[in-house]
Amino acid sequence: METITLNNGVTMPMLGFGVYQITDAAQCEQAVSDAIDVGYRLIDTAAAYTNEEAVGRAIARSGVARSELFVTTKLWVQDQGYDAARRAFDRSMARLGLDYLDLYLIHQPFGDYYGSWRAMEELLREGRVRAIGVCNFPNDRLVDLCLHVEVTPALNQIETHPLCQRITEHKVMEEYGVAHESWGSFAEGRGGMFHNETIAGIGARYGKSVAQVILRWLLQRGIVCIPKSVHRNRIEENFDVFDFTLSDDDMTRIAALDTGRSLFRGDDDAETARFLSTIRFPI
Question: Where are the residues marked Lowers pKa of active site Tyr as a site (predicted)?
Answer without folding.
Answer: 74
